[in-house]
Amino acid sequence: MKYDKVTEASIDELMEIFYEKIREDNRGLGEIFNAKIGTDDESWKAHKAKIANFWYGMMLGSGNFAGNPMKAHADLMEEKPFKPEMFDFWLGLFKESLNKLYTDEVADDFHARAAGIGQRFKYLLFGTM
Fold this sequence. Notes:
There is one protein chain. The protein has 129 residues and is mainly α. Helices cover 75% and strands 0% of the residues. The chain is globular.
């Protein structure tokens, strides 16, 4: 049964599903994320918890995320440049993961937030939407 509302527990589950897809991606996302985060499960556990906290804030108004996601992506560009389409790949995997967990309405709302963030990052990093 799919969730009909976003909760911290459902976001935690989303992080598990989504980041498993990222780690296995062969279009470049897996390589980029594994190079930055590491390949061990403990490093990924910490990353998933941090990003879940970000989404708690975005979707629930809770959490205590501390960080600058735009700076993290800009710094990553200096370390290992990536292409604008990587945001599209990321968003596609995120949408697949949302659709596994949430009803259509909830998945669409969550996806719209993620798409907006991705478009902003893409524009700021590459000057393109």
